[in-house]
Amino acid sequence: MGGRLVPFVLLALLVALHAQLWLGRGSVAHVRSLQQQLAAQKAANAQAQQANDRLAAEVNDLKEGLEMVEDKARSELGMVKPNEIYVQIAPR
After folding, report:
1. Can you give the residue range of the structural domain that contains 57?
2. What spans does the record annotate as topological domain Cytoplasmic, numbered to this chain (predicted)?
């Protein structure tokens, strides 16, 4: 009786392992989904890093260059120096 039970137990273990491989937490589909999420997150991180680098360069320019401050004030706040005439040309 013990000799007939061993193959069934081994078969049951094999079925359980295959079920875990195809349906469980570490299944092929789950791993593929996690890889896609990782790729999407890496792309988002790269975009955020580019934005951070651009902003860091802008902060550095604002700290060091008065010309950049003047350009920002002119374009965003409409600054005009005394005795200066402001002429705006409309784009076509």
Report:
1. 21-77
2. 1-5
* Total count of domains within the chain: 1
Angle at which helix 66-77 crosses helix 28-64, to 10 degrees, equals 100
Residue 87 maps to a domain: no
Calculate the alpha carbon distances from 54 to 62, 68, 69 in Å: 12, 14, 16
Per-residue pLDDT, 2: 66
Which residues have CB under 8 Å from 74's CB, separation 6+? 80
Inter-residue contact 36 to 29 (CB < 8 Å) = no
